[in-house]
Design a protein that fits this description.
Radius of gyration of chain C: 21 Å
Shape of chain B: globular
Strand content of chain B: 15-25%
Family (chain B): Belongs to the ABC transporter superfamily.
Order of helices and strands of chain B: HEEEHEEHEHHHEHEHEEHH
Number of domains of chain C: 1
Membrane topology (chain B): Peripheral membrane protein
CATH superfamily of chain C: MetI-like
Number of strands of chain B: 10
Strand order of the largest sheet of chain B: 6-7-8-3-9-10
Oligomer: heterotrimer
CATH topology of chain C: MetI-like fold
Number of strands of chain C: 0
CATH architecture of chain C: Orthogonal Bundle
Strand content of chain C: under 5%
CATH class of chain C: Mainly Alpha
Domain ABC transporter (chain B): 24-267
Chains: A mainly alpha, B alpha/beta, C mainly alpha
Largest sheet of chain C: none
Radius of gyration of chain B: 19 Å
Structural class of chain B: alpha/beta
GO cellular component, one term (chain B): plasma membrane
Helix content of chain B: 25-40%
InterPro entries (chain B): AAA+_ATPase, ABC_ATPase_HisP-typ, ABC_transporter-like_ATP-bd, ABC_transporter-like_CS, MetN_ABC_transporter-like, P-loop_NTPase
Largest interface: A-C, 40 and 34 residues
Chain lengths: 215, 276, 224
């Protein structure tokens, strides 16, 4: 073990960690949007929407992320869209995340008693208003711990986008250890960085959860 | 019978001698869940400013009937009209079921109070009351908050405006739920066992608010197990049994003069359960 | 894809599938065994040991599987640990799974109703007997859904082994894709295949679950 190796590589690794963080954040945020849309579509009462949503969720939860990633990476140029690997990677992460998020929301919606929408209905609320003011705000609160957990999962999963050449933390570690022949030190450092980010996130999640529980 | 009318009943202003105006007319309403018939050919008229209590054993169909009045339950046959307007269907032949969007106009004039209060837990008492004023009546937020404050004061909860429902007792939650409804100035209020989920010592405060509403001339249909309330406050009482109205009339008649054996048995059971 | 390709690459793909199943089964077995031992060790009231095990679990669960694999396969030789890709892959899967399995077992252990253990104690059963006849069966019942879920997750993780050149299905497929320039079709085929595989593992798991918990659904046990 030579710690000087780690010290030398640290600026590069930290820079790459920032890339990992913002890619994951973007993936989770887009995943939120997809997840909410899919969840609402599945609860809309239209059979076609429900089936389509169900297939989407089943596919993106059933197929390994690495394959989803390559699928999008190879498919987009085929249908004439030439995108940089970064975009394909974020797309894949968002789609996968959306599938999980929609299930998280589905579970949370089931935890909101039916009487609450009934009260709104009896007062003359429109369906979109009930979603916007009654159901989604509560589903969101119930979901917070699961959503923070989802961000942690995505952060770890984002290491896979290294295979399409996106220079995030894992890819950068590979590049550095291939040039200095010190994989043990470099990967250890990368592992510690991942661990630090995730621990901070977990702590943050616990704090937010406590805040919401007080409301 | 142990049920006695208090002097308060006599104080209530008698209905004007003029021809009463019907608020709700129910004609030949039936409903079934598959082979299970829950309402059979119900006829009932509720006049303006009148309080009608629906009583009966559990499973008699009283809650279902109440929920049909604002179409939270769909009725299969017959018709329900509120102020002349047909509930839940287009007034054409053949009739067409209205969507929830089309029902909004009717529902904003019909308030409903639920057994489980159904307050929205992520909003304060004030926000619970103001929400519908903003979303349905289109009031601006400041005016809605002012009005919500007045309504909370009316049910004796002015000091709880900023409390979340989880910090309120059951009785207080139900009073907020009533404030939420009266803020909308409904023409008619439906109560679905409003005190059944409450601890006994909290029942009184909710019934008092309901008495005040009745005294102010609100038209009310109340599903209840509180026979004292029915005897003292209701203008008329309907006893439902197995989906039918088995007895209907002023409380004195229903409680003391009805020949219906099932009603006698129901009141007997009630009396035994509520005596020491 | 024409049939020539299947004839040409069929054997390699079959071999790859075999390696996938081998890695998955061996990884699950190692993970569960290790996880179970960790759970048992965590019952011992020695603070440093508890901290160590807790740290192990947090580290494994807080870092990407791929980093763990790289560390084991590429970093290993630096400390004299020279593993062949497949061995590293199996060991990696096992270590990765062990942290999750340990947590599943711990939850199951805590879910065993105290009264049942007290009842066994009051009957004078020895601790070994109580563990074997009372705690473990109750644990099994409550942990099966989570175990099945984790096994399905590990099915998906096997494809990551291709990155450290374990010749499993994903690796063989990518070799074929590169040689035939039919990348998209190959990947699509892989996606459908794994979709079915994971679905099959989940379904099989649900059947095992129904079987293991059968006594719970019996009316005479409903109030247990």
């Amino acid at each position: 073990m030579k710690f000087s190796v780690i010290v030398d590589a640290l600026p590069h690794l930290l820079g790459a960690a920032v890339t990992t963080i913002w890619i994951s954040l973007l993936g989770v945020m887009l995943g939120q949007v997809i997840g909410v849309l899919v969840c609402v579509a599945r609860q809309s009462g239209r059979r076609a929407l429900d089936v389509a949503g169900g297939v989407y969720v089943s596919f993106f939860r059933g197929v390994p992320l690495l394959i989803q990633l390559l699928l999008i990476y190879y498919m987009l140029p085929l249908i004439g869209i030439d995108v940089p690997p970064l975009v394909a990677a974020i797309g894949a992460l968002s789609l996968a995340s959306g599938a999980y998020v929609s299930e998280i929301y589905r579970g949370s919606l089931n935890a909101v008693p039916h009487g609450q929408s009934e009260a709104a209905l009896a007062l003359g609320f429109s369906a979109p208003t009930i979603w916007k003011r009654i159901l989604l705000p509560q589903a969101f609160r119930i979901s917070v711990p699961a959503l923070v957990n989802e961000l942690i999962l995505l952060l770890k999963a984002s290491s896979l986008i290294s295979v399409v050449g996106v220079a995030e933390l894992t890819r950068t570690s590979q590049t550095i250890s291939a040039s200095n022949f010190r994989p043990l030190e470099i990967y250890l450092a990368a592992g510690v960085i991942y661990l630090a980010i995730n621990s901070a996130l977990a702590l943050f999640g616990a704090l937010v959860e406590r805040r919401l529980a007080q409301g | 019978m142990a049920i006695t009318e208090s002097p308060a009943a006599a104080v209530k202003t008698p209905a004007p001698a003029a021809e009463p105006t019907p608020m709700v007319t129910i004609r030949g309403v039936s409903k079934a869940y598959g082979p299970n018939v829950v309402l059979r050919d119900i006829d009932l008229t509720v006049n303006k400013s009148e309080v009608v209590c629906l009583i009966g054993p559990s499973g008699s169909g009283k809650s279902t009937l109440l929920r049909c009045i604002n179409f939270l339950e769909v009725y299969d046959r017959g018709e329900i009209r509120i102020e002349g307007q047909l509930v839940g269907y287009s007034d054409t032949t053949p009739r067409r079921r209205l969507s929830n969007a089309e029902l909004r106009g009717l529902r904003r004039n019909v308030g409903m109070v639920f057994q489980q209060f159904n307050l929205w837990p992520h909003m304060t008492a004030l926000e619970n009351v103001a929400e519908a004023l903003v979303q349905v009546r289109g009031m601006d937020k400041g005016a809605a908050a002012d009005r919500a404050r007045q309504m909370l004061a009316r049910v004796g909860l002015a000091d709880k405006a900023d409390s979340y429902p989880s910090r309120l007792s059951g009785g207080q939650q139900q009073r907020v739920a009533i404030a939420r409804v009266i803020a909308m100035e409904p023409h008619l209020m439906l109560f679905d066992e409003p005190t059944s989920a409450l601890d006994p010592e909290l029942v009184g405060e909710v019934l008092q608010v309901m008495r005040d509403l009745a005294a102010d001339g609100m038209t009310m249909v109340v599903v209840t197990h509180e026979m004292g309330f029915a005897a003292n406050v209701a203008d008329r009482v309907a006893f439902l049994d197995r989906g039918r109205i088995a007895a209907f009339g002023p409380p004195r008649e229903v409680f003391h003069e009805s020949p219906d054996p099932r009603l006698t048995q129901f009141l007997q059971t009630y009396h035994e359960r509520n005596s020491f | 894809m024409d049939t020539n390709l299947l004839v040409q690459y069929g054997p390699a793909l079959l071999r790859g599938f075999g390696v996938t199943i081998l890695c998955w089964a061996a990884g699950c077995a190692i993970g569960m065994a290790l996880g179970f031992v960790i759970m048992l060790l965590r019952q011992i009231e020695v603070k440093p040991l508890r901290w160590l095990l807790r740290a192990y679990i947090e580290v494994i669960r807080g870092t990407p599987f791929l980093i763990q694999l790289f560390l084991l396969y590429s970093g290993g030789p630096a400390i004299g640990l020279r593993l062949e890709a497949t061995t590293a892959g199996i060991l990696g899967l096992g270590i990765y799974g062990s942290a999750y399995f340990a947590e599943i077992f711990r939850a199951g252990f805590q879910a065993v109703p105290k009264g049942q253990v007290e009842a066994a104690h009051s009957l004078g059963m020895p601790y070994g007997g109580i563990l074997r006849r009372v705690i473990l069966p109750a644990m099994l019942v409550s942990t099966v859904p989570a175990l099945v879920n984790m096994m399905a997750i590990l099915t998906k993780e096997t494809v990551v082994l291709s990155i450290i050149t374990v010749p499993e299905l994903m690796y063989e497929m990518q070799t074929m894709a590169a040689e035939t320039f039919a990348s998209f079709e190959t990947i699509l085929g892989m996606a459908l295949f794994y979709w079915l595989l994971v679905e099959a593992v989940s379904r099989l798991g649900r059947r095992v679950e129904a079987r293991v918990t059968r006594f719970l659904s019996h009316p005479s046990n409903a109030r247990a």
